[in-house]
Design a protein that fits this description.
289 residues, alpha+beta, Tetrahydropterin Synthase, Chain A, 3 domains, three-stranded antiparallel sheet, 10 helices, 8 strands, 21% strand
């Protein structure tokens, strides 16, 4: 029974001692755990004495010596993230050469490559970088032709990056990709006018296409009518010759010719608009003939 009491007491004291040592070590900053893409900048009496970039467990006393024990009282450790960051500035106002107010959206990447400059050269480095990018956009894109603003975004993006990079490096930033993602009209009246002109132009193009189709169909019909008239004229020109040749062949047989002409005469008489009255005498004559 005494053994179990000793074991329980030992475990309790060990836990209390571990918590006490962890609290003391955290207060005195005897060790630090450094995440990935993070830099610790140490200052002592307001002066930068070094920085740590290697991730993992870090013991300041091995790196800075016994004075590391005084960091909680007279020093400070600044944690700076060096991860890639992205920002997007919307509706930066520029005017084209034609006087049209345009809204420009620019996207850019940046990361901290100089933690000391990031911490101590500018009180708000990120805000200053955004303002510098906005200024560069207005400077590089103002008074350009409207078609250049709408089409040459790659070249304009490179100009903005070249304008911003020297200044951003002074504040500890390295500027990455920069791209003008959006160029839009800000004047609603101008937008409505452009829409109206586009609609009118589409109507004109549609009407022109329809007229061209109608003209093509008319030409086809005219050509067909012309060829049909030519064929009919040729047929009418040949018809008397064909009929005359046929009648000449029939005249070689007098009986056949007489019967044919008699039949044609009777057919013409029946088709006449007048009335034909057949009596016994005329019917007999017709039948006998």
């Amino acid at each position: 029974m005494d053994f179990l009491a000793y074991v329980f007491t030992g475990l309790l004291l060990t836990a209390i001692g571990s918590l006490f040592l962890a609290s003391v070590g955290k207060t005195l900053e005897l060790w630090r755990v450094l995440p990935e893409r993070t830099v610790l900048v140490y200052t002592f009496f307001g002066k930068v004495i070094g920085k740590v970039e290697e991730p993992g467990l870090f013991l300041p006393i091995f790196h800075f010596g016994p004075k590391a024990l005084l960091f909680p009282l007279f020093g400070k450790a600044y944690s700076v993230s060096t991860q890639l960051q992205q920002s997007y500035l919307r509706n930066q106002l520029v005017n084209s050469e034609e006087g049209a107010p345009m809204g420009v959206g620019v996207w850019f990447e940046m990361f901290v490559n100089d933690p000391e400059a990031f911490l101590f050269r500018n009180s708000s480095p990120l805000g200053s970088l955004n303002a510098n990018v906005a200024t560069a956009v207005v400077k590089q894109l103002s008074n350009l032709k409207l078609d250049v603003l709408l089409e040459d975004r790659d070249a304009l993006s490179r100009k903005v990056r070249e304008e911003v990079s020297p200044t951003s490096s002074q504040w500890g930033f390295a500027l990455g990709s920069t791209y003008i993602r959006k160029v839009a009209f800000r004047d609603q009246g101008m937008i409505a006018e452009i829409q109206r002109k586009v609609v009118n132009r589409l109507r004109q193009v549609t009407a022109a296409m329809k007229q061209a189709g109608d003209n093509t169909v008319a030409i086809i019909h005219s050509e067909a009518d012309k060829q049909a008239s030519q064929r009919l004229g040729q047929a009418q020109a040949v018809r008397p010759e064909v009929v005359g040749r046929s009648l000449a062949e029939i005249q070689r047989e007098p009986e056949v010719a007489q019967a044919l002409f008699r039949l044609l005469e009777i057919n013409a008489t029946l088709k006449a608009p007048g009335k034909v009255i057949l009596t016994e005498t005329t019917a007999g004559l017709i039948l006998n003939s």
